[in-house]
Design a protein that fits this description.
Structural class: mainly alpha
Distance between the termini: 28 Å
Largest sheet: none
Helix content: over 70%
Number of strands: 0
Order of helices and strands: HHHHHHHH
Length: 171
């Protein structure tokens, strides 16, 4: 599914969407390179806006909804990753990853789509694919997939069958 969604986003990219993504990237740069007490929170909020925009670009409501659900379920892991990278001076790596994604969409380049798809697909290593996660983002996605399954199973065992009333200690 991943390699079908991203090309759809590329095909439907337009200049208006590009301006919004570029503004969000500028905000990310300002946060990472600037001062402030709440850099992690501010970066994470803009990161969510960035990925919301990317998931909406494909004009596929199902893909957009799946993307939002995954981001909601993986909030804590993603937040911790952003926090670690910013607090250890690796914020430029976050900027580079987002810039690469933006440039791929804008230029409709196919040369690094495989790398992006590989990072996304490697989260199924050992279950559905033989692509071992090697880079940090691939490892994060792999761990996130496992965590998402655990959260989903725990939610199904609750009377509400929902994560909305679940507390962390329930896991």
């Amino acid at each position: 599914m991943e390699d079908g969604i991203f090309p759809g986003d590329m095909a439907k990219y337009n200049e208006e969407d590009g301006r919004v993504l570029e503004q969000l990237l500028d905000q990310m740069r300002g946060i990472v390179r600037g001062d402030g007490q709440d850099k992690v929170e501010r970066f994470f909020a803009v990161d969510n806006q960035f990925h919301d925009m990317v998931s909406q670009m494909g004009k596929n409501p199902l893909a957009d909804k799946i993307s939002r659900v995954v981001r909601t379920l993986t909030h804590a892991v993603r937040y911790e990753t952003v926090s670690t990278m910013i607090n250890t001076g690796r914020g430029e790596e976050l900027l580079e990853a987002h810039s690469d994604l933006f440039e791929t969409l804008r230029s409709r380049r196919q040369d690094n789509v495989e790398e992006i798809v590989r990072a996304t697909a490697s989260h199924g290593w050992g279950h559905r694919v033989d692509i071992k996660p090697e880079h940090e983002m691939e490892k994060v996605l792999f761990a996130t997939d496992e965590l998402t399954g655990l959260i989903g199973a725990a939610a199904l065992m609750r009377p509400s069958k929902s994560v909305s009333d679940m507390e962390l200690k329930s896991l």
